[in-house]
Write the structure tokens for this entry.
Amino acid sequence: MSIADWYNYFNDPTIADAILDRLVYSSYKINLKGESMRKIKSKDFSNELNSKMSLEN
């Protein structure tokens, strides 16, 4: 969940701030670009599996 959606999830902005403060205190925010590695590897695995199956038929 993105921080922008955080306040929509909780009814009380004070509670949302308090919980968010405790979760992100002294943490680092890392913004990643592109597709996730899980998604890429899943596509690669699917393509490899389909290739093997077509060779068997």
Observations:
- The chain has one domain: 3-56.
- The chain has a mean pLDDT of 79.
- The first helix runs from residue 3 to 9.
- The two ends are 44 Å apart (CA to CA).
